[in-house]
Structure formats: structure tokens, C-alpha cells
Automatic annotation (TrEMBL):
InterPro entries: Bacilysin_exporter_BacE_put, MFS, MFS_trans_sf
Organism of provenance: Longispora fulva
Highest taxon above the source species: Bacteria
Lineage: Bacteria, Bacillati, Actinomycetota, Actinomycetes, Micromonosporales
GO molecular function, a single term: transmembrane transporter activity
Keyword field: Cell membrane, Membrane, Transmembrane, Transmembrane helix
Tagged with keyword Transmembrane helix: yes
SUPFAM superfamilies hit by this protein: MFS general substrate transporter (SSF103473)
Protein name, UniProt field: MFS family permease
Location(s), subcellular: Cell membrane
Membrane topology label: Multi-pass membrane protein
Transmembrane region(s): 52-72, 106-133, 145-168, 174-192, 220-243, 255-277, 284-302, 308-329, 350-368, 374-394
GO cellular component: plasma membrane
PANTHER family cross-referenced by the UniProt entry: INTEGRAL MEMBRANE EFFLUX PROTEIN-RELATED (PTHR23513), STAPHYLOFERRIN A TRANSPORTER (PTHR23513:SF11)
Length: 408
């Protein structure tokens, strides 16, 4: 039986090229996320060393993402992404070679992941700005939903694939597989011919950075939604990544029970992306705000005392909401932010949201120790849900339409 391709892949050849490379690369990233800790442990590293290696990728990303946004608005974005892919491919090849030869040390992995994170800081803002140059406006949400679908599927399939690769070929083999995905992505990017964007320029860096911040500050729908999503990453997600496993160990049967909850969320995320493929609401940020409020209930769901089955089903519902929210948010930015500023605005988004997560994760554990696990989860909900609902009071959020209008 032949499965029909989504219309955006049939009709938008440039996006199809971009999507083909990124789909495989996204899966490779999910493999690395699982394989990297095992690589550290395989060379005699400790749990603290695992943290250092992961932080080595995260910290440079946060330090350089604003720089990446400026450069992605200056230069052809697919060329910026191509260089980033080549650099990240190289880091994974070196890491895989060192691991395979038994020569890897923790400091090697720290240094390589720092280079990886720096290159990633240039890639992500460029990708957000490139998608609108490869697809017609009426297909933009469909394109973002399709990318989201791949990321959600990767959350489900990636760990299983990573486990198989680590068992069969060791952590080095898994990292080598990721390197191959970056090489494939680079090949597709080299073939890409997107529509012309803003002309190349070489202005004052700080002035361009200020212009990007002004583009955020001057639009109430941007800064208010950015604030709400930052609260979600700061307050709600730590309930999933930090406190959820702790509660599962105490009340839900341990790792196997938690795996059911995580899988349910992943399946819900896939459903949410499928919904976004089909449905284009007239007031996208109103729908996104409602979806974010549903997604922000995760702390209450996890800590509400329900059975494993009830928690899994409700987490599946939040997965639908979270995927729909962020697809609509990304599409709104790409629709209403001028193309020449889009990567800089995205870099501020990435800085605030990605930067909020480590802070929230660092605070979640001590808060639970001090006030109790269930009370902490309840407070997380009392902060997260109203922050999302507050978006309904913002005029710019209520008025923003699915199509570009002057003055948004």
C-alpha cells in the first residue's frame, strides 16, 4: 500500500530537500542524546562527568545563540547551516574515533561537545529563518508541523535505536551514526536553492543585536508569548525531567512505569503534529495559549495521585497540546516577523527558553526536598497554568491572525 506524501513535500521541492536532510539529522541527535552518557561512563567517567559533558554542549549554545541569530540574518542561512553541519559532523567523527580506539578521555568529550554546541547555536536560528524561504506562506504551518512530527517521532524511536546501536557497536558506533546524519544533511543543504532573502550585509554587530531585541520588545504578542513559554521551560518541564522520575520511583513502579508515561507523551506529541498538519486556526496564538495552559498541567497530572494508566492518558493529552502550541508559535513568528529579523528574534526565543531549563532543573530538586514532592508539583502548576492563561489578556495575542497583517 502506497502512503501519499503530504502536499507540502509534493509541491515544495526546496522544502522537501531541507526536510529530507533534517529528518535524518534529527533522529541522529536523539541517538546522541542517549549514547553520550554511555560514552562517558564507558571510559571510566562518573555521573558528574556526564553532567560536565552535557553542560559543555549547552553552555556554548546559550553563549553564542544571539551571535548565531545575527549571522543568520546577515548571510545565506542554508550556507550557515551547511558550515554548522560540517563542524558537528567533524566533532562526532573525532569522538567516535577516539572511543573506538580506546583513547578517549573525559576532557576530549568536553572539548568536542563545546565545539558541537557552538556550531548548533548558529544552526538553530538559521533553520527557523530558512523554512519560510523554502515554502509558500499557505504551506508554512504544514511544513512546521511536519518537522515537529519528525522530532516527536524521534523522541519515541530515537532511544530504542540508540540502545540498539550502543549494544551492537558501542557508544562510538552510535556517535559515528550521528556523524553520518550530519554528512547527509550537509549534502542536501548544498543542493538547496531557497528563495532570496534579505541582502547580505556586514553592519555593526551590537546595532543589529539591538534591532533584533527591538523586534521582540515592540510586539506585545512576541514578548508576552516568549515570557509564557519561558515559564513553561523554567517551572513546568522540571516537573517532568527531574521530579517525575523521582515520583515514579516512589509511586509508579520505577523506571518501567515512567517509561510508559514518557511514551504516552511522545505518542500524544505525534498526534498533536498530525492535528497541526490539518488544522489552521484563524487566531493561532489564542489556540497556542490554550494549548500551553493544558500542557502546563503536567506537574499536577504527575503529582495528582492518579493511577499509572490515568497519568499516561493525561500526559498523552498534554503531548497533543504542547506540540500544537509550539508549531503555532513558530509559524506565527515566521509569518509576522520581517524575514530580515527572523533569525535574531528566534535566537532570543532560544536563549530564554533553553536557558530557563537548567535553572529550573537545578531548583526543582532542592524545592522538593524542602517543601515536599507533591506540594512542589502543585505549586509548579499554580505558576505555569496562570502564566499561559494570562496570554488571553494580551490584545496582540487575541488579534494576531493566521496571515500576515501590517503592524503585527
Amino acid at each position: 500500500m502506497r502512503i501519499p506524501l503530504p502536499a507540502v513535500l509534493r509541491e515544495e521541492r526546496q522544502f522537501a530537500l531541507l526536510f529530507a536532510g533534517q529528518a535524518l539529522s534529527t533522529l541522529g541527535d536523539r541517538v546522541t542524546f542517549v549514547a553520550l552518557p554511555f560514552a562517558v561512563l564507558a571510559i571510566g567517567g562518573t555521573a558528574a562527568d556526564v553532567g560536565w559533558v552535557i553542560a559543555a554542549a549547552t553552555v556554548p549554545f546559550l553563549l553564542f545563540t544571539l551571535v548565531g541569530g545575527v549571522w543568520a540574518d546577515r548571510l545565506p542561512r542554508h550556507r550557515v547551516m551547511l558550515v554548522s553541519d560540517v563542524v558537528r559532523c567533524g566533532t562526532q567523527v573525532v569522538a567516535a574515533t577516539l572511543l573506538a580506539g580506546g583513547d578517549a578521555r573525559v576532557w576530549h568529550l568536553v572539548a568536542l561537545m563545546a565545539i558541537f554546541g557552538t556550531a548548533d547555536a548558529f544552526f538553530s536560528p538559521a533553520l527557523a529563518g530558512l523554512v519560510p524561504l523554502t515554502v509558500r506562506p499557505e504551506r508554512l504551518q504544514e511544513a512546521n508541523a511536519l518537522r515537529g512530527l519528525v522530532m516527536s517521532a524521534g523522541l519515541v524511536a530515537g532511544p530504542a535505536l540508540a540502545g540498539g546501536l550502543v549494544v551492537a557497536f558501542g557508544p562510538g558506533g552510535a556517535l559515528a551514526a550521528d556523524a553520518a546524519t550530519f554528512a547527509v544533511s550537509a549534502v542536501f543543504l548544498a543542493r538547496l536553492r531557497p528563495r532570496a532573502g534579505a541582502p547580505e550585509r556586514a553592519g555593526d554587530f551590537l546595532a543589529e543585536l539591538r534591532d533584533g531585541f527591538r523586534a521582540v520588545r515592540s510586539r506585545s504578542w512576541v514578548w508576552s508569548t516568549l515570557t509564557a513559554t519561558a515559564v513553561y521551560h523554567l517551572v513546568v518541564l522540571p516537573s517532568v525531567f527531574v521530579l517525575g522520575p523521582v515520583l515514579a520511583e516512589r509511586e509508579l513502579g520505577g523506571a518501567s512505569g515512567w517509561a510508559v508515561v514518557v511514551a504516552a507523551f511522545g505518542v500524544g506529541s505525534i498526534v498533536g503534529d498530525v492535528v497541526a498538519l490539518r488544522w489552521r486556526p484563524g487566531r493561532p496564538l489564542l489556540v497556542a495559549a490554550a494549548a500551553l495552559a493544558v500542557g502546563s498541567c503536567q506537574a499536577l497530572i504527575i503529582g495528582g495521585g492518579g493511577s499509572l494508566a490515568v497519568i499516561a492518558v493525561l500526559e498523552g493529552v498534554t503531548g497533543v497540546a504542547v506540540s500544537l502550541c509550539f508549531t503555532l508559535w513558530e509559524t506565527a513568528l515566521q509569518t509576522h516577523i520581517p524575514e530580515g529579523s527572523l533569525s535574531r528574534v528566534t535566537s532570543f526565543d532560544l536563549l530564554v527558553t533553553v536557558g530557563s531549563m537548567p535553572v529550573g532543573m537545578a531548583l526543582a530538586g532542592p524545592a522538593a526536598d524542602a517543601f515536599g514532592l507533591h506540594p512542589t508539583l502543585a505549586v509548579m502548576t499554580l505558576v505555569g497554568v496562570p502564566s499561559a492563561l494570562a496570554l488571553f489578556a494580551v490584545r496582540g495575542v487575541r488579534r494576531l491572525s493566521a496571515v500576515a497583517e501590517p503592524g503585527t
